[in-house]
Write a structure and sequence with these properties.
Four copies of one chain form a homotetramer. Chain A has 19 helices and 26 strands. The first copy, chain A, has 496 residues and is an alpha+beta fold. In chain A, strands 5-4-6-3-12-11-13 form a seven-stranded antiparallel beta sheet. A six-stranded antiparallel beta sheet of chain A has the order 7-8-9-10-14-15, with helices on one face. Chains A, B, C, D: This is Amidophosphoribosyltransferase.
């Protein structure tokens, strides 16, 4: 049932630049041990807004006022900064979530916005989930058969129903029970009346970090950039397969799952995470810059200007320019006043596409051989339009350099990807793509080059047991996508 | 958990006139077999708005678009008349609900607005409930213990969870299962993908009627006035303990409950129902007028003017004037532009009370002996203020005549009543009340007189087996209010 | 220029009952000498809401914060009761205005909402005007020619521009200058930084009364009912052609115009004013009841039930029933939850018409000979629909009795009337109207009967010099409607 | 009078980064000869949004529907992209305006949002003004004395009143009359029913360019970047002192003013204009990059990293890095989800300041000697906070390099500047500023260096007759700021 408590948030998303990217679905954040914890969560979610712009939610707990919740469509800064709303979220313990809607759900509903809450006989619990449960359809069928009533279309709701049905007598134990039934990728932040809880799936596909505030306050966050905004100290990453239960200034570490080799999402380095976050002890900015350096080594070309496709291509372009010695310049200017979508737009706005967001710096481009550095090519629609704008402005040559390998497979672990057929690299060779885009040259970084740039190893990818999840490039899925296979998705064959 | 998806609808309800009335909690309406069924439901709910002004909801089903739902705070006419909203509710089958918030729930939440929906393995179902479940607390505890997750604070949600856990293979049978577990008063309208269902509890405390449209369309409604607005023909009342399952132009009648003597709420005649509705073959207006006639016989007084307290006292005042021969006149004028509450009112508005809604027709009142006819006295706060206004305007005498017996006991069957201690008649004798109100005389209709007026019998009330539920007057509760007794409510003792 | 700062308030007004009435355009209210004067104005405007439901505005003055203004579409109670808005209107001096949009202006604009404000070299002034300026077009042309820039399409704006151009050195004197140029009907409430000012045109077509609060507070109001709500004492009516300048607890009376015989609007008695207001020392309710008495004498008929068309026909119906001895009963029930219009309604709502607001009390009507008492017949569209509903309910006969003479001429003095061709009585005889409406009999009160009922004289109308403006009935316009004649309106000829 | 038709848009502006910049007040745009001209204006205003984010307005003219106007607070993209609003602005001729509120006006009012409209005897006209009228106070006093009623607190409204009072028989001639009375800086775009008009003041302080669409369509815009977005061809700049009257595909050029040496605002090059605009035949990006080059020559320093303060310092930082050979890197990351202000923010949000928008890329900064390149220092508050963030992140040294000379004087020509006392450079020497900011070195580009970078001359500034208006740096005001002098502002003395 689609409960249209709000007008459909996005009649359509024609924002061509962002639409032609992969999208992280979520960011999670939780804090305890501070007055007005919800305010800290709001700031943390603001810093994680790049992980999900559609909607956000916060749940807090206060001994007198109980659990309170607020969920809103739109940016954190437009909702969760208002005193009148934040006053309704009292307490020293709170968690929150920002989300990007998945391709599957048409017509967003506030019911689908996390955190999800359940009242159990021993008290309430709220959860916020980043990732994707690959056996959610089967779990949902089973739970409905046994009498559970689902309120949303979200895969994440399975977790709270599994918890409700667990026979364990305390909530963290129920959560262990529940998550052992769940397959796929999950970084979960949860709360009870007294505890802040964080868990990562056994492969550690999605990130989750622990931070510390003064006194006994602790923080859980998808990325370190959200620790900076509230002045929290970065303690460490939650480990793959680890559950931390935080209460009274103590952090208890549990290991509910069988040990496995970790498979962190390599695309977090390429695009999802913010450049000022630290992953694996290393700045994401520096990794991206290094990708540019590798790319300049792997695919050099004679040219006059290295120009980033703003803003995500910028660090790699800086690295490319530095390594190649070709001058760096802002050949494309981004309009800072663009949000993500329009409500009920005019026909004309609908047809504007990229031009609403990007303009070419014609005087700089004219007559030059230009290297455009972008983070990835998904459908290729935006790349074509950018190329046209650059040529219209009088560029002599256009060379694309892409800071990731060809994206040829969909992600089933919490990233919104088009169907395989829509991915340019799934149906074309590199040369066909070059022709399709109509550029003078097109080069992607190699998978080994990417592994080198992220610091995995000097040799690159360990093909026997890859150090990262790179299914979107390699088609090798570390967890079988059960629901999708049931729906007809074909795994890579030995021949491919 | 209070999910504040909307600003608290009613920071407080200081609308003194209405606040000093008993309030029906709900109206229900359903229709099938017509194009755009939701539009019919909207009209029906508009006609039932007097049964619940806080919020309303509609669920519809369309073979292609599935179940859709919209729930809103505020009047039906302000929400469910807009084309843009109604377009989201397609289909030939729809049900709806208007609600008045109960005293217990502070801070209304859209989650509490019905209809409630559940997805079962054999398909979805939606229910709308008028009444109150007297063992809801116990049921909720049991359901939570077994893993159900409640989404609202409403007693009615128990029904859908009981249905979800039933082992029956079709939805009407699951509904029978569920309602056999439920105690109290319920008139329920429900729907599946193909069926429109109506049920009344074995005592038939709350009303529910069946209507017919052209072709194969059928209607279920709390009152007949909502049939008139859509041009439906009144067929008959659903009988106490009856379930009707309507599909394909057929009305199947079932009897899921053990037979019992019916106990229709007598206050529906006095105040809740609209005067143009028909109950038991008789116009509510005519019944009220007849109450006035009885009252004039039981409690005559010499006076110059019979004046209704608008608008609910009007029919009884007309009857009183007619029987007594004393001229009828509008001594109190009601401002038509008053809604129920104010958002964030100024101090001054907060203190205005009755004067915002009522003004005395001073020229008519001056020097006269005035009989004021009102439907009931609950707390007595408004009656005192009206008396003061009448005296300020120069009335020579003020005589109150009340069209119901003293309201001395709370209702637990779906009516919002103050705690017993707040009911004037629970703590004072009639003479004490007269003194408290400061009027020259105060008379209530007798219980027998009321029974005569509603046409129960010439003799009045059958005290051995009363023909109606009159617990609010008599303290004799036809269903034991189990949850309330657990919370400390004391039943009437033999001594009382 | 139509500055659409708000969505068009009324895409169309299909509310059939109200649409087939004449509409007063405005109510005005002002107060000084009290803390938070704007709160008093809000209450006064709420009591005057029946004079204009489209929009309202308040201007206040505070020595430190200067002049402040707020103008809003919608009911007073939905806007001017909020603390957050009222805090922006500080000071001890304030005026306000409610308006009904005139037929001519399509697409309401907030710019047209009064009070209007002008900054002069000696300080600011605000004005609120009830009535209509019959030479506004000519004045506007002249003012534009001389360099004035109009901000609204309102005739009332001429007044403030004439004041701006006056060479007088104080504002009341400028106002005298301005109003001497103006023709037509005007009751104006105005304010400067220190003075509250009230004026009525020489004929006194529109009402304006003076009230007194405790201490030195004074009130100006369109009607006395608005004095009651704030507890002000009624002092007297402002006289035709009088200007009062109130300051420091003193009321100075001026006479800026040449004396003329007064021509108060007789329709204020019939329909516009609230029944609890006092006009000419007499309750409007009592006058209307007396119209019913006269009507019963002039046009008796054998019947079983006297039934008002609610709510405006009620007092006359009470009088008719009393005089005729035929029982009074509520055969038509009004839905209390109807506002005036709908935003973007569904097709179905659009076609509902009268049934959204009125329902027949079928049990009461069936088999009866019914006398329907209504205040007036304008287009006749609603009367026809009501007759149909009554016959559908099984009435044996339907007799219309109308509490005013046939409305055959448009009003040009501040009342929204259809073009002459649309007035039923302009094109049909009484018998033709009866046939058109399809009723058993149709009778209007005579002009003399109406004059008797309002207490003008036992003989009725003084045809040589009528005691009232009755142009809508008689076609005798006390002020020549210059703009309308220029636009082609034909005055009554000697032959008519 | 402050007409609070909307809640005060900006209870306060604590957005520390932007608050410590100078702000352009306005952008103007107009187009004719295209269907749905208002849509083109919306796109143009979106591209000019950096010139004013508070509010925007559009006026269009259609032969049948007349002049229509819409004015809104907030971003163009949130208002003027909606089909339902744009449909209310039909026609082939339209102009628009975006505005930044001036420091002086507290409590923004929709009345102050341009374009302004006036109805004259020969038809209506609308104007949109970028700049500031330095004798507006005197003009307003005179106009009020003569009977004009002002509707806004804007200086620009004088122009339309002067036009209304002109005795000329056509509107362009009235506009010439009006503008000859006006002193200061003005780039005006205006429209009548048939003509699109553009004017620049004799000194040409603010920019205005002419563009051409296919067929007979013409465009006027503050900057060329807004031509790009609608695919218009850049024709030429409107010349200082020139008026163009565009109609029927013809551009007529007039010279209403006495010739003077031009004084274009040099700060447009430094900060106001978008980097992809062309001024004087040269890309603004290239000029800024060149400023960085000059700065590296004038003020070299040994360091490890050149880091821009995003985003305005970026081009100069690229130039500095290139010239100095020191690596360029993004040491500060900007949160893309920040708007300008918050409505009713929590205490915590209020105190966050720069951290809501900027975060340090700690891994890149740690241990490095960092050169921070920013465009200007106004109050210095943000510079101090950024320095602290950089040091907290472990930078070894911090060197500020500023892409403009010290800002020591307020602008009176349409830029929002703090009072002189608040400008850091007005009260401190360069060394005092360095100490105040607490950095290792602080250097501003020289005035001559800036003139070289903008391409004025190899020698730099012509001190006898400067090629630009540089009053904010030099204190030499090309037009006497009459109103400000009356209010007590002291011009630079010979001694200074």
């Amino acid at each position: 049932m689609s409960d249209r408590q709000m007008p459909p948030a996005h009649p359509f998303d024609f924002d061509a630049v962002d639409a032609d990217k992969l999208h992280e679905e979520c960011g999670v954040f939780g804090v305890n041990g501070v007055t007005d914890a919800a305010n800290f969560v709001a700031l943390g979610l603001h810093a994680l807004q790049h992980r999900g712009q559609e909607a956000g939610g916060i749940v807090s707990y206060h001994p007198e006022h109980g659990f309170n919740s607020a969920r809103r469509f739109g940016y954190v800064r437009d909702n969760f900064t208002r005193a009148s709303l934040m006053e309704t979220l009292p307490g020293e313990l709170a968690i929150g979530h920002v989300r990007y809607s998945t391709a599957g759900s048409k017509g967003a509903a506030i019911r689908d916005v996390q955190p999800f809450f359940g009242e159990f006989s021993m008290g309430g619990a709220a959860i916020a989930h980043n990732g994707n449960i690959t056996n959610a359809d089967a779990l949902r069928r089973e739970l409905i058969e046994r009498g559970s009533i689902f309120q949303s279309s979200s895969d994440s709701e399975c977790i709270i129903h599994l918890m409700a049905r667990s026979l364990q007598r305390d909530i963290p134990a129920r959560m262990e029970d529940a998550l052992r039934r769940v397959e796929g990728a999950f970084s979960v932040v949860a709360m009870t009346r007294t505890k802040l809880i964080g868990v990562r799936d056994p492969l550690g596909v999605r990130p989750l970090v622990l931070g510390k505030l003064a006194d006994d306050g602790y923080v859980l966050s998808s990325e370190t950039c959200a620790l900076d905004i509230i002045g929290a100290e970065f303690v460490r990453e939650i480990e793959p397969g680890e559950m931390v239960v935080i209460s009274g200034g103590k952090v208890e570490s549990r290991r509910p799952f069988r040990a496995q080799a970790s498979k962190f999402c390599i695309f977090e380095h390429v695009y999802f995470s913010r450049p000022d976050s630290i992953i694996g002890g290393r700045s994401v900015y520096e990794t991206r810059r290094q990708i540019g350096v590798e790319l300049a080594r792997e695919a050099p070309v004679e040219a006059d200007l290295v120009c980033p496709v703003p803003d995500s291509g910028t660090p790699a372009a800086i690295g490319f320019a530095h390594e190649s010695g070709i001058p760096y310049g802002m050949g494309i200017i981004r309009n800072q006043y663009m949000g993500r979508t329009f409500i009920e737009p005019t026909e004309q706005i609908r047809n504007m596409g990229v031009r609403l967001k990007l303009n070419v710096n014609r005087a700089l481009i004219r007559g030059k051989r230009v290297i455009l550095v972008d983070d990835s090519v998904v459908r290729g629609t935006t790349s074509r339009k950018i190329k046209e704008m650059i040529l219209d402005a009088g560029a002599a040559e256009v060379h694309f350099r892409i800071a990731s390998p060809p994206t040829a497979w969909p992600c089933f672990y919490g990233v919104d990807t088009p169907q395989r057929e829509k991915l340019l690299a799934a149906t074309m060779s590199e040369e066909e793509m070059r022709e399709h885009l109509g550029v003078d040259s097109l080069k992607f970084i190699s998978l080994d080059g990417l592994y080198r740039a992220v610091g995995a190893s000097e040799e690159g990818r360990n093909n026997k047991c890859p150090q990262y999840c790179d299914a979107c490039f390699s088609g090798e899925y570390p967890v079988e996508p059960a629901d999708m296979i049931e729906k007809g998705f074909k795994l890579k064959t030995a021949a491919e």
